[in-house]
Amino acid sequence: MTIYLDHNATTPVLPEVVDAMIPFLRDHFGNPSSGHVYGRRALDAVEEARAQVATLIGADPEEIVFTSGGTEANNLAIRGVMDGRSGRVVTSVVEHPATERPCAWLEAHGTEVRRLGVDAQGRVAGAHDAVDADTALVTVMHANNETGVLQPIEALGAAAHDVGAVVHTDAAQSLGKVQVDVDALGVDLLSIAGHKLYAPKGVGALYVRRGTALSPFVLGAGHERGLRPGTENVASIVGLGVACAAAGRDLDATSARMRSLRDALWDQLKQAVDGLRLNGHPEHRLPNTLNVRFPHTTGDAVLARAPEVAASTGSACHAGQTSASAVVLAMRVPAEQALGSVRLTLGRHTTAEEIARAADALVRAWRDATES
Fold it and tell me: Which of the residues are catalytic?
């Protein structure tokens, strides 16, 4: 059976999440905006989910706005803050396109965007020089989707608030893997993606700190405090709530277990692959994420020879030409070495037996790739 080590791409939906959703697909079909019993039942379910999401991040329920996913949440945060507002946007060179593209859109429409570089371990550098009185928004991801590197959001947030700027972070990858608390991080806006959290695809949320000025970029009726018009996706919202509740129940134990298995995978690989290197910070990264560089070959070649392992590279392929991951290149890894990168991301149900099998398969694949 194929070993799934691509949980940073998407997660399976938890059985308890599916069970909670089914009644709202089969029976409880009401519109939450309707005043009758069908509508009230749907509205109660949405509000319960709102409270469950808020609890996981240390927020108040009224600060949670449901969206179609992390991408919409990022767009609402970034474009919503900057609508009609002057000043600079500060971001990083290793952001997901869901952040980079809205920033580029603002830039194309006249907003100055400053992109912070990262050090050799993938952590954002130079924030204190970039954040000044002209800064309106700082938007930096909490954890990188490729390397798992955790960014210094607390320090960035403090610097931004010192000059009156708004702070946004994309927590799509970190939520459910490490503790995420909006007050501890010092953020005004935080994005959530359901399908990274064992909830369905097509649902997410944006935390909006009380008092943060935000304009909707989709126009319609007054749903979600007027920030996200459109009838709520009740079943998926219910699923997101249950997934957040599940994450909160056993977060520390799950994180510790994934970290132990991740480190076991790293140990098995580096003992067998001479010259294997880690991409990212050895400590400040997600407990489930291992991004490594195989020497003398490409990550694509390794994975092609290990069909029993479902994983990914950060490389981009266009018209038959493979280019190295921009995230790995930003850490000043030479391009020929960066092409050997493979991202292996564990989940809450990954087993020690699967880790051992995956390590064996990847080592065999690397040997085949370098000998052919």
Answer: 317
